[in-house]
Amino acid sequence: MSTFTIFLALIVVVAFLLIVVIMVQNPKGGGLSSSFGGGGTQQLGGVKKTTDFLDKSTWTLATLLLVLILASNVAINRGGENVDSKALDEDAATTTPALPAPLPATNDAATATPADSTAN
User: Fold this and answer.
1) C-alpha distances in Å from residue 22, one per residue of 47, 48, 81
2) Looking at the record, which segments are called Disordered (predicted)?
3) More confident residue, 16 or 96
């Protein structure tokens, strides 16, 4: 298992968790975050603390997702080939591509125009 595969799996997990945390939030306090615990007086930590936790977890997961995406770019296996631009290669810029050979000229009746055949 390569490092890039591990980063990709972590990115998928963090993205899923971020989606769940964002969907649970409601800015007016009436979403799923306020219904944890069933009753209004028996809520775990209260609505305010739940909102603070969800807000902090959203920022944490978003930051973690960004870091994982940037780190996965470093871990991509490029196959050991040179990934520099061909436009910057000095050897390629000085050589000209070979032109195709010209077609041979033929003088047969099929290529003659009607104007040529009637002008006697």
Assistant:
1) 16, 16, 41
2) 86-120
3) 16
